[in-house]
Amino acid sequence: MFDGLAANARALRRILNRSHLAAAGLLDSRRVLADLESAAASGPAPLGALHTLIVTELWLAQQESARALTAWWRPVPEGSLPCV
Length: 84
Hints:
By secondary structure, this protein is an all-alpha fold.
């Protein structure tokens, strides 16, 4: 597990440096990055919390991308027939 964190630390740092939650003032990005560095060096770190945070950040980024892609969508007018 620690080898995976070390091998992917650069990508994880990139995700956390663009943190939506930090931008909203919901977490201290310096502390999170310090925890990531500790984990990547096989040190003590809240691994469950880091996992949850990274998954949440990826989900939030995906939501942002999905909004941009659905700009073409419009509600179907009342009484319209569905395409089959």
